[in-house]
Design a protein that fits this description.
The chain contains nine helices and eight strands. It has a domain of 189 residues: Rossmann fold (3-Layer(aba) Sandwich), CATH 3.40.50. The protein is globular. It is α/β, with parallel strands linked by helices and 290 residues long. Helix 1 packs across helix 4 and helix 8 runs antiparallel to helix 9.
């Protein structure tokens, strides 16, 4: 059956997704919530696989000393700080985020790291970047657009602020590709699917990025997969199990009894020894033509 002209196909309507995303609207976050969100970001940023992935994707962008680089949706500034170390005293790393409270935390962390001189933070939105055309040598956006309503519309904006020959990179996750060690496959699949739809506005956006890059005029488009994993029950990704089960129960996909039983089985596995918890991330990158 062909949809009427102008209608949005059911599987492309994003209005019902992301209702439980804690990152969908951070602009109005108060200081307490911002500190909590920043702590989550910093904890994830310290994970061994996350450190390795960040080092790899920033390397793939060829960020060099003396360059101007924009980090869109910088949050606590973990990626911005790594960019600042790469561009050095002759360059400039700019972190952009819609949350004044998160930016305050990011500035404090940058000062503590001794990076304040060649790093700055600005308030702004990925869909309307507050910079002139051709302002940056490279632009990076990390685990942001999947939480932004109509996040695909940000791609032309990211391209706009790149100089000719500049590089664009987006690192985001695929919410369906979340893994937990667990004996109940059927229930785990239901929980992961429910959390996928509820905790991101578009958990499949990363699958569309190569084509979106091409349509925005980016050339030499490439993609590489990363799957950060942790084996400790108290790690960032293992703790995501609690959140996924909570969201699935709230959505009515599982019962409260099923939620408790699933989490008990997961924690029992972790008490016996190492478990696996993680999520697929994809880095898409390319360059703006000269």
């Amino acid at each position: 059956m062909v949809a009427p002209e102008g209608a949005v196909p059911r599987d492309q309507d994003m209005s019902g997704y992301g209702q439980e995303s804690m990152w969908r609207d951070t602009a109005a976050a108060d200081a307490e919530r911002a500190r909590d969100l920043a702590a989550r970001l910093e904890r994830r940023a310290r994970a061994e696989d996350e450190v390795a992935a960040r080092d790899t994707y920033l390397g793939l962008l060829d960020i060099a000393a003396g360059e101007r680089v924009l980090d869109v949706g910088c949050g606590s500034g973990a990626v911005t700080r790594d960019i600042a170390r790469r561009v050095g005293s002759r360059g400039l790393a700019v972190g952009l985020d819609p949350s004044p409270a998160l930016l305050a935390v990011a500035r404090d962390l940058a000062r503590e790291a001794g990076l304040g001189d060649h790093l700055e933070f600005r308030e702004g939105n990925a869909l309307r970047l507050p910079f002139p055309d051709r302002s940056f040598d490279a632009v990076v956006c990390v685990t942001v657009l999947s939480h932004v309503p109509k996040g695909e519309a940000a791609i032309p904006e990211l391209v706009r602020v790149l100089r000719p020959g500049g590089r664009l990179g987006v690192f985001d996750f695929d919410t369906d590709m979340t893994t937990f060690t667990h004996p109940d496959r059927t229930l785990t699949r239901r929980i992961v699917a429910a959390a996928s739809d509820a905790t991101a506005v578009n958990g499949w956006l990363v699958r569309q990025l190569p084509l979106l890059f091409q349509r925005a005029g980016i050339v030499d488009v490439r993609a590489r997969g990363f799957f950060p994993l942790e084996t400790d029950l108290h790690s960032f990704y293992a703790n995501m199990a609690d959140r996924c089960a909570e969201v699935a129960a709230k959505a009515g996909v599982i019962t409260e009894i099923e939620r408790r039983a699933w989490l008990k089985a997961f924690h029992d596995q972790g008490a016996q020894g190492p478990i696996v918890a993680g999520r697929l991330h994809i880095f898409v990158w390319g360059r703006k033509p000269e």
